[in-house]
Write a structure and sequence with these properties.
- The complex is a heterodimer of chains A (about 300) and B (about 550).
- With about 300 residues, chain A is of the alpha+beta class.
- In chain A, the strands form two sheets. A six-stranded mixed β-sheet of chain A has the order 1-9-6-2-3-4, with helices on one face. A five-stranded mixed β-sheet of chain A has the order 5-11-10-7-8.
- Chain B is mainly α.
- In chain B, about 65% of the residues lie in helices and about 0% in strands.
- In chain B, helix 3 packs across helix 13.
- The termini of chain B are far apart.
- The chains are: A alpha+beta (about 300), B mainly alpha (about 550).
- The interface between A and B is large, with 110 and 107 residues.
């Protein structure tokens, strides 16, 4: 099929591709936000691996197509045969086996990393009539059992307000997390499905009304991040953000005591915008769910505690 | 009863034959599959333009971080309608139209199995589409819950209004679904029973294989969506509580039902596009399709596997670990048959005699971009990575690489490729190439930009965003306006050529395939005489297709 020279060329091309795709895979780390949890490092390793393989496949096939465009154009009136081969069993087996092996490799890597994450201790308490008690039994070996945590913070979410209740019963609209300590977040939604998402944590979890969902995470990088609502939650969806502070245990405790004593004035952008909408070129005036006032919201949270 | 119908149809046919090829037939209830095909394609293209305008409004809003062009309810309505229109009134029905036109010609049949049903399934669509658009004029506007319409958000409508955007949305989608089911029955029956003598399954063009696979998926999976929509309608308007969490309903069940259809829907859209590539790449590289049998089987394989992957849309939806891992594995399996296809296309092009006319440019561009979309698709199947980018612009970018850069490019390729057959006239090549470059470059810029945005954490469906995301958003928006403008030379070319283009010969591309053996445009019953098939498909080595027999050489 090929001459020796062509085999050498193909081998050279593959070697170049390997180097280039490995290099692109390394670049992939810089496309991600900073890694603020131990789990984020694992996810980025997986992403880099996926980018390397993806770049190899993409550039490999595009290279062949570009080569054909460059060197195998037909003269306008030449409608004779290009090459006679209708198929080649060896080639077809090769390129069925290659993606199969790649897929097995990728799936194995992803499974491993998923196991290491252990971030998604998904302990659901489903408020349905049919108790789904049997579900965790299947699941126990794929990290559905939340790992032990030193802190538990309740996360209450509703249209369009995040609030957090800390161990000393302080409630705030900011999420503060002590660094390097496993913290359990107990997620509860009131009205519609919301999502817990901090890009730097590489963590996303939908919060389903009627279920309590636990996640455990361990931040490793101090700083200020943004918590976002990752599941579309209606009109003011885009405003459903709040600050996340990862800080030393001392500062965290200091903040807790300080907040317990001081009066908080929560700011809610959705409420503000509902009262005074921004000027837009087109105003539809269509219906929107009215966000609850923060004061009311706080009371409701306390009532819902039990 | 059947006898009466057939007589009616025969009578109908005679009168249509007498009318000849007038423009009026396209606005009337006509049972000719070719007329119905054109009706579908033209109507859906109008919806494509509407959907595209909505997309440009969305991109205009996203030029700046603040919400300053449209207010938030309108923005939510825009992306909901954009998604709905593009999927349910552009790609899926366009494919139905193209398949309608081509399948009987390609398998050597005189028409579809049920011509009357065929016409009915088309005529459900215009009212359904107009109904959907009419919701813009309701006092509280269109549906605003995204094209997924997840409850409970989709159930939050003004309490005092029975007719609201969401209600209209559900009713239109159920109507469109009924039309699709009718079409699917017709396609599957036609391909199974109406093949010309000698047209065995392994002599069928891959396009017919893909229509067959895609329509089987419609039959198997569409009922799940219809059920979900009807339950949602009951919840919305009649006080039931299937999906209401505050009344012991479960919104997650909706997601399962919805994705049980809507993941395979991606392949209902993509398989015909792969079929188009499999027709055009061999014709313009003068090669038999490499590995025809494996490509044909891979087509069915994709359809089969895609039934079992829906949960990968729900990796973050309180899905337990075992389910995440199972569906990660099944989702990745799709890469094997799609990989086979991509390799086969590439091997067909390898060392061939390439003719880079417009259909080939679109087909090669689309196939190449599919490889990119496929690579990011495998990434998304990997659960730990998906958890980070789920619901971000990374997914939006990936998805548009599939639905625009692959499927819509394939659709354009198909329009140019079969334009001479359908209209009997040639399009203007220069304008076609201009259209290709004006589409290919901005489309890549627009949808590539979404990937870094998603990796950085920009969520989809937000009407305002953090200023850090503005750079890539400006690039995406500006390129998208150019992309919108690129349809203008296309429309000018198609309309102008249809009216004034030079007459086309029967087989301008020297292609194999039965559709090229009849006249351009084909007569009412497609063939003077039903052909008998004796050759394998994609018989490009055969001198019959190399030597110009049915056209003058001057072109």
């Amino acid at each position: 099929m090929f001459s020796v020279f062509e085999y050498v060329l193909i081998a050279f091309y593959v070697a170049v591709l390997l180097v280039v795709s490995r290099w692109i895979g390394q670049q992939a780390f810089s496309w991600m936000p900073p890694q603020a949890t131990a789990e984020a490092q694992r996810v980025d390793d997986l992403f880099s691996f996926l980018v390397s393989i993806g770049a190899f496949i993409f550039l490999g096939l595009i290279g062949v197509i570009v080569y054909a465009i460059a060197f195998h154009r037909a003269p306008p009136e030449d409608y004779t045969e290009g090459h006679p081969s209708r198929g080649d069993a060896r080639l077809e087996i090769l390129w069925t086996a290659t993606p199969t092996l790649l897929v097995v490799w990728i799936a194995f890597q992803s499974f491993n990393i998923y196991q290491q994450l252990n971030i998604l201790g998904l302990n659901q308490i489903v408020h349905l009539h049919t108790p789904l008690e049997s579900a965790p039994a299947y699941a126990a070996n794929i990290s559905d059992v939340p790992k032990p945590a030193s802190e538990t913070i309740d996360v209450f979410v509703k249209q369009w307000d995040w609030s957090f209740r800390y161990p000393n019963n302080v409630t705030s609209n900011q999420l503060h997390l002590p660094i390097a300590r496993a913290t359990r977040l107990n997620l509860q939604a009131q009205d519609v499905i919301h999502g817990f998402y901090v890009p730097e944590f590489r963590l996303k979890q939908d919060i389903i009304p009627g279920r309590k969902i636990d996640i455990v995470l361990t931040p490793i990088r101090a700083g200020k991040y943004r918590l976002k609502d990752s599941q579309f939650s209606g009109t003011y969806f885009a405003l459903m953000e709040t600050d996340v502070y990862v800080e030393s245990l001392d500062r965290y405790n200091q903040w807790l005591t300080q907040t317990a004593t001081s009066e908080q004035t929560p700011v809610n952008q959705a409420v503000a915008e509902n009262i005074q909408p921004p000027k837009t070129l087109f105003n539809s005036g269509w219906y929107t769910v009215t966000p609850a006032q923060p004061e009311v919201a706080n009371k409701r949270k306390l009532n819902n505690d039990t | 009863m059947t006898h009466d119908f057939s007589q009616e149809i025969t009578g109908d046919r005679e009168s249509q034959n007498q009318q000849g090829n007038t423009w009026r037939q396209y606005f009337s209830f006509n049972t000719d599959h070719k007329v119905i095909g054109v009706q579908y394609m033209v109507m859906t293209f109008i919806f494509f333009l509407i959907g595209g305008l909505l997309a440009m409004l969305i991109r205009a809003e996203l030029l700046t971080p603040e919400s300053n062009l449209v207010d938030r309810p309108l923005y939510n309505g825009l992306f909901t309608m954009h998604g709905t229109i593009m999927i349910f009134l552009w790609i899926i029905p366009f494919n139905a139209g193209l398949s309608n036109y081509l399948v009987p010609l390609m398998i050597g049949a005189r028409d579809m199995s049920f011509p009357l049903l065929n016409a009915i399934s088309f005529w459900i669509l215009p009212p359904a589409g107009l109904l959907l658009l009419s919701s813009f004029f309701l006092p509280n506007g269109t549906a605003q819950a995204g094209w997924w319409s997840y409850p409970p958000v989709s159930l939050q409508v003004p309490g005092d209004q029975f007719i609201n955007g969401e209600f209209i949305w559900i009713v239109s989608l159920v109507l469109i679904g009924i039309s699709s089911i009718m079409g699917a029955v017709n396609f599957v029956t036609t391909i199974f029973w109406m093949r010309a003598p000698g047209m065995t399954f392994f002599r069928m063009p891959v396009f017919v294989w893909s229509v067959f696979s895609a329509q089987l998926l419609q039959l198997v999976n569409l009922p799940a969506l219809t059920a979900a929509l009807i339950l949602l309608l009951l919840d919305l308007s009649f006080g039931t509580q299937f999906f209401k969490p505050d009344a012991n309903g479960d919104p997650i069940i909706y997601q399962h039902l919805f994705w049980f259809y809507s993941h395979p829907a991606v392949y209902i859209m993509a398989l015909p596009a792969f079929g188009i590539f499999a027709e055009i790449l061999p014709a313009f590289s003068r090669n038999p399709l490499f590995g025809y049998r494996s490509v044909a089987i891979a087509t069915l394989g994709i359809a089969f596997i895609s039934i079992f992957v829906w949960v990968h849309h729900m990796f973050t939806s309180a899905t337990p670990g075992w389910m995440r891992m199972t569906f990660m594995a099944t989702s990745m399996l799709v890469a094997i048959p799609t990989g086979i296809k991509a390799f086969a296309w590439t091997a067909t092009i390898w060392r061939s005699k390439l003719h880079l006319e417009t259909p080939m440019l679109f087909a090669m561009g689309g196939a190449a971009m599919f490889i990119f979309g496929g690579v990011t698709g495998v990434m998304l199947a990997a659960t730990p990575f998906d958890i980070h980018v789920n619901n971000t612009y990374f997914v939006v970018g990936h998805f548009h690489y599939i639905v625009f850069n692959t499927i819509t490019m394939a659709i354009f390729a198909a329009i140019y490729y079969w334009f001479p057959k359908i209209t009997g006239r040639m399009y203007a090549e220069g304008w076609g190439k201009l259209h290709f470059w004006l589409t290919f470059i901005p489309a890549n810029i627009t949808f590539f930009s979404m990937h870094p945005l998603g990796l950085q954490g920009m969520l989809r469906r937000v009407s305002s965003y953090d200023p850090q995301y503005q750079g890539w958003n400006i690039i995406a928006s500006l390129a998208s306006f150019l992309l919108g403008a690129s349809t203008l030379p296309f429309i000018a070319n198609i309309v102008g050529s249809w009216l004034y283009g030079p007459r086309a010969v029967d087989n301008p591309w020297h292609a194999t395939g039965l559709e090229w053996t009849t006249s351009s445009p084909p007569p009412r019953d497609n063939f003077e005489e039903i052909p008998t098939v004796t050759r394998p498909p994609y018989d490009y080595g055969n001198p019959k297709y190399s030597v110009i027999v049915n056209s003058d050489n001057s072109e």
